[in-house]
Amino acid sequence: DAGVTQSPTHLIKTRGQQVTLRCSPKSGHDTVSWYQQALGQGPQFIFQYYEEEERQRGNFPDRFSGHQFPNYSSELNVNALLLGDSALYLCASSLVARGQETQYFGPGTRLLVL
Amino acid sequence: GDSVTQMEGPVTLSEEAFLTINCTYTATGYPSLFWYVQYPGEGLQLLLKATKADDKGSNKGFEATYRKETTSFHLEKGSVQVSDSAVYFCALRDQAGTALIFGKGTTLSVSS
């Protein structure tokens, strides 16, 4: 049973650039959540996608946007990168449709903004 | 708003010692509570969970009991191993039932 997968594993960008991170949910899951984990901190909720729509959003600026595809996979886009966007970006999947909302995390994408 | 507070680390123990990592929460109602573990260079793994008051979650020798009276969900293990060295995060699911709210994490280091 494939778990949550994310790509790429590492990424280096410069300030002002744009980045797209990708996530494939655990088999059978229909919902994807994105979190940002700064060094030495707990993950912070960015947003959650369900049925191809943003279901809930955390306290992140509009530079952070996302998308969910019909196969439930998801992308996180960050525009106009800032140095402070350097972090581990975690994707988590769950099965909302059947009330099983325990979230399972992928290995993350480590983004470094120079 | 909802929040989670967990004890600051690092926690340094010898193998076979008893472990407690304290976690308290502030939330409206009775949120589901979780412990996640993060090994170096990896994502988060669900360790255990509890969905209602007095529930005890357990896995791999770790236990935590949902205490409504003290709004706590302390993690315990009777005998730690070197392989338990990791960062442990306490979390709750928010009022909307969507987002996880995490504590800052507690680093555990176990030596042989």
Structure characterization notes:
The complex is a heterodimer of chains A (about 110) and B (about 110). Chain A is mainly beta. Chain A contains no helices and eleven strands. In chain A, β5 and β6 form a beta hairpin. The N and C termini of chain A lie far apart (about 35 Å). Chain B has about 110 residues and is mainly beta. The chains are: A mainly beta (about 110), B mainly beta (about 110). At the A-B interface, β5 and β10 of A face β6, β10 and β11 of B.
Give the helix proportion of chain B (percent range).
under 10%
CA-based gyration radius of chain A: 13 Å
Instruction: Report how far apart the termini of chain B are.
Output: 41 Å
Integer average pLDDT of chain B:
94
**Oligomer class:** heterodimer
Mean pLDDT of chain A: 94
The Cα radius of gyration of chain B reads 13 Å
Low-confidence stretches of chain A: none
Q: Judging from the principal axes of the Cα atoms, what is the shape of chain B?
A: globular
Q: Main sheet of chain A, how many strands, which sense, barrel?
A: 7 strands, mixed
Contiguous helical run count of chain A: 0
Give the amount of beta strand of chain A, in percent: over 45%
Most extensive interface between two protein chains, with residue counts: A-B, 24 and 24 residues
Order of helices and strands of chain A, N to C? EEEEEEEEEEE
Total number of beta strands of chain A: 11
Portion in beta strands of chain B: over 45%
Total helical elements of chain B: 0
